Every structure is written in C-alpha cells, then in structure tokens.
Amino acid sequence: MASNFRSYIWDPVLIVSQIVLMQCIYYSFLGLWMAGVDSLVQTSRSLDQIFSYNVLGFATVQGRLSMMAFILNSLTCALGLWFFIRRGKQCLDFTVTVHFFHMIGCWIYNAHLPGALSWWLVNVACMALMAVIGEYLCMRSELRAIPVNSGPKSNL
C-alpha cells in the first residue's frame, strides 16, 4: 500500500502562484512598513523609498528608518512563508526568488544595478532573516507530533 504522505508532484502552476503571492506579500507589507516609517518622520511617500538604492543609508534618519522597514518586512515575509509555503526546504528558494525579483525591479527603476554597499548589506541581511526565520517556523510545524487516535484506551 503506497502512502501519499509528502508525495511530490511537479506543479508549475502552484509554484508560479506561490511566487506571485510572495511578491505581493513582499511589496504590500513593505509599503505598509514604509507608510508607518513615513508617518514617524512626516515625509512624502514615493517609489524611491522601495526601489531606489540611494534612499537606504546610515547617514540620514530617513535612511535608517527605511532600513528598519526593510528588516521588519523580512520578518513579515517569514510569516508569509510559514502560512503559504509551509515547507522548510522551500523557504530559501522562495526568499532568494523574492529578493532576486526585487533586485530586477530596482535595476529597471534605476536603469542600472544598485551600487550602494548599504543596499546590498540590507538586502543580504533581509534575505538571511527571512530564510532562517521562515525555515524555523516551517520546521516547527513540520516536526509537530502527529496525533494517532487508535480508539479508546483501556486500562488493563
């Protein structure tokens, strides 16, 4: 008797839909975190805060708060991995994919690859946080004990 427990079936529609979902989670929550940061320092909102690598930096308060928003967003996306991907082995794959598409978006927006060291440091740190925390949460769910109900217990 073959078991269907953890059977793997190649499903490209599922994979593409999960990638699109994670991108939506990434940008929607990053927008919410940026809006919260903007309300703290009363600055105007723009796409530069998300896609321009010049905004992220240690020199200005706005740059440090934007970096904080990116880091908080990685924690939120780790929850997204836990809720929607649910596989510890796939967390790193989806994390790298989300950040790769973000790098492509920044490349298109700025017309060249990001050149600021702070942009690279923030994105590598966010990738690490998102992958490790997402994998930890998924592994906790995967390793949870499976209850086996074998009927009423008799006291012999």
TrEMBL record:
Coiled coil: none annotated. Pfam families: SYS1 (PF09801). Keywords: Golgi apparatus, Membrane, Protein transport, Transmembrane, Transmembrane helix, Transport. It comes from the Eukaryota. The chain crosses the membrane at residues 12-35, 65-85, 92-111, 117-138. It is a multi-pass membrane protein. GO terms for biological process: Golgi to endosome transport; Golgi to plasma membrane protein transport; protein localization to Golgi apparatus. InterPro entries: Integral_membrane_SYS1, Integral_membrane_SYS1-rel. It is found in: Golgi apparatus membrane. One of its GO terms (cellular component) is Golgi membrane. Belongs to the SYS1 family. Interacts with ARFRP1. Involved in protein trafficking. May serve as a receptor for ARFRP1. This is Protein SYS1 homolog.
